[in-house]
Every structure is written in C-alpha cells, then in structure tokens.
Design brief:
Elements lengths: L34 H28 L3 H7 L9 H17 L6 E2 L5 E2 L8 H27 L6 H25 L1 H30 L5 H27 L3 H7 L6 H13 L3 H33 L1
Antiparallel strand pairs: 1-2
Helix pairs in contact: 2-7, 3-6, 3-7, 4-5, 5-6, 5-10, 6-7, 6-10, 7-8, 9-10
Length: about 300
C-alpha cells in the first residue's frame, strides 16, 4: 500500500518544502518503501556518482586546473567533491603499494617490501643489537660509578648514550621489519597516508604565500585536486606491478615525469598569471614542497622502524 507523502521532517518535525529539511538538512526521502523502489533509488544514486566521476576525471587528467577553477567558481554539482576524490585516490594508491609494488627492496633472506631501505641479515642485526645493549649497559654502569665518585655526566656523554639507545632501537626495528616485512609495509603505508594528509594544508599555505590575493580555501581546493590527480597517476603506475608485472610498472613510472608540467599548466589555468611568473612560482613551490615531503618521508620511515 502506498505511503502518504511526508509533510514533516522526522528528525525535527519542521514543515517540509522540498527534498531536504531547511532546518536540519535531513533528506525527505521515505524508506518505508518496497525493496524494488529502494533498489531503484540505490542504482540511481550509483549512476549519479558514476556520472560525476566521469565528468571529473576527464578534465582532471586532460585539462589541468579546470576542475578546481570551476569548483571554486560555483560549478560544483557535476564534480566529485575534492575531499571525497582525495580519499578515493589515496586509498587506491596506498592499497596498491601494500600489495607489493613501489620501491623494490629485498633483504638478505629474500624478504621483499616497499620501503627505501636495505635490510641486513637478521642474525647479524640481533648480534649488533645485543652488542649495543651490552655496551650501553657497561657505559651506563661506568657513568653511574663516575657520578657516585663525584664526576657528573657531561652533555657529550649524555648525547652519546642517547645516540646509542637510538641505534639500538633502530637495529631492533630493522630486525623486526626483516622478520615480518608485510606488517612493516602496512604500518609504513598507514603512517605515510596520515603524513600526506597533514601535508595538504602545508602545500596550500605555500600557495597562499605565492598568491596572497586568493582565499586560503581556494588554495585548499586546488591542493586537494592536484594531490588526488597525483595519487591516481601513481596508482595507475603501480597497478601492473600489483598484479605481477613489475617491469611494466617500471616503464610506466615515466608518467610521473609529467607531474611538474601538469602542475605548471594547472597553476596557469587556476591562477591566471603569465607563463614566466607561473614558472618562477612553480620553481619555488616545487623545491620547498619536495624538501618538506622528503623530510617527512624520512621521518615516517624512522618512526615506523623505531615503532615496529
């Protein structure tokens, strides 16, 4: 039996005048419907997302800067929202990385995972770790005796002890990573995904310093769409390696060389400045951001090793 049309919002009981409640924003859609109607609505929503995805991907790849420019200009209905696209792209990239593509690194015992480190023999690492621990304990005892004798530790001694403890921690982490490379790669991917998300506002801040007259939110939208494009390109590059064709991935890595050209064209279209001025700002932006990204990646690698 057909349900009567809904006249009030079930959430706040406000009088409805459209498809959404103007008071709380809840949809006026009725879910007390036959399964056929529910399935029809789900298919309709899926095709709507699919159509927006197609409308977003084509200009995102072939007309750099058009999607963020039109989005901040108010033409949002036909595009996938930037944050949703970013989540989709980052999920695809880090999933493919965790499946075994990316930088190929092998340990002496044949283990393989996607981190730019060479893992040595686990037994040798264990011996070095034990030796470091023994040396640290001996020096700690000596330092205690000196302290008792009235000779306090110097700053140099404390720094040396801290360095030795850090080396021991890293040696132990390297050993654990060589024993369980899959867990290490998964942990690295998770932490790198978090780090890249935190770098987004930094990228937008650099753009704000270069283009002071534009609102910061405009730079955020541009940064999100650019990173989403980059993640999708990396995902496409990694895909052959993830299904067993690493040589194809190595050849397709040439696509990444298009990144600075793409960013130049996107900045030209989005910010509408001259070629020379855009090139100068691109040079500053890319060098500063690459330095920050490299330091961040190194920190994540060390963090993952120390905390594995």
């Amino acid at each position: 039996m057909d349900q009567p049309p809904r006249t009030r919002c079930e959430n706040c009981q406000t009088e409805l005048a459209g498809e959404f409640c103007f008071e709380c924003g809840q949809s006026a859609r009725e879910y007390n419907v036959p399964i056929s109607t529910f399935a029809k609505d789900m298919v309709s929503e899926s095709f709507d997302l699919d159509s927006r995805l197609r409308a977003t991907m084509r200009p995102l790849f072939f007309r750099p800067g058009l999607v963020p420019r039109d989005y901040v200009a108010g033409h949002r209905a036909r595009f996938v929202p930037p944050f949703r696209l970013y989540l989709l792209a980052s999920f695809a990239m880090f999933l493919l990385m965790s499946l075994g593509s990316g930088i190929d690194v092998r340990s002496d015992d044949g283990a393989q995972f996607n981190v730019g480190l060479t893992i040595g023999d686990p037994e040798a690492e264990a011996e070095r770790a034990a030796a470091a621990e023994g040396g640290s304990a001996t020096e700690s005892g000596d330092a205690t005796q000196d302290s008792v004798a009235g000779a306090p530790e110097t700053t140099t001694q404390r720094l040396e002890q801290l360095e030795e403890r850090l080396e021991t921690r890293i040696s132990e982490g390297v050993q654990r990573a060589s024993e369980n490379p899959g867990a290490f790669a998964e942990e690295f991917s998770n932490r790198m995904a978090q780090a890249m998300f935190l770098l987004l506002p930094v990228f937008a801040l650099l753009l704000k310093l270069l283009y002071r007259k534009r609102l910061y939110v405009h730079h955020i939208v541009f940064a999100i769409y650019f990173h989403a494009w980059f993640f999708l390109v990396v995902a496409v590059t990694l895909m052959p390696g993830a299904i067993g064709f690493p040589a194809v991935s190595d050849v397709m890595a040439i696509l990444l060389l298009w990144s600075p050209i793409y960013l130049f064209l996107a900045m030209r279209r989005f910010y509408e400045q001259s070629r020379i001025l855009t090139f100068v700002k691109l040079f500053v932006l890319s060098n500063v951001y690459l330095l920050l990204a490299s330091v961040t990646m190194l920190a994540v690698v060390l963090w993952t090793i120390a905390g594995t």
